[in-house]
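FAQ: What does the model actually see?

It sees only this:
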Amino acid sequence: MRKYSSNSNTSQRIAYGLDLQAGLDQLPETRPLAAEFGALTEDLIQSQAARGPLQVDLSRARARARFANFGFDDVLRQVAIACEAADGGKRGPVFGAVFPDNLTCVITPAGESQAKTGEAFVRGFEATGVLGVAAVREAWLPRVAAALTELKAALAARDEAVARLAVARAREEALCEDHELALERVMGQVRALFPRRRDLWDAIFPPAPRAPRVDEDEMAPPEGPTI
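And it is asked to produce this:
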């Protein structure tokens, strides 16, 4: 009597489950088992299908976060150029007031760190009273604020997509475990119905799937919220 490995992925469990359901359906004695076990296999099919769009959503959310990070940095670089222009073509008091720790310190962080650094930058940009900053601030603060708003929104959307996919993966993993437990029960029930009928067992139960491989269907921990 053959079954899949405990580390088989969802696709392998589904394929095996469909084959076993068909095998159980061949005999009147095992036909009720086919319906019950088939319902669990259908749950796995639905769970796997639901996970696919969430993975697409996460990829899009990550891309949005990367570009929001780039967009915020790009606006700050333009602010730096405007400050240098206000200083007469070089880095002087205006640039120093807007970027007291230099431009690099503001654009190097990424993700949540970039959002926090950006908030601190905006507070400083709004507060400084150094001569010449007001004109730069009037021209560029709205753009900086808009870029920061988009960055924070993109990061929140990415984190939400990570969380939704994690929930879907956890549900799918639980269903995989339920499916295996049900399979073991079916094996015991078939043994009880047909004692020592190994030839019949082999007709009912499909061959064990090949060794699991790492692919998109393998249950893996959700990736962290990186840019």
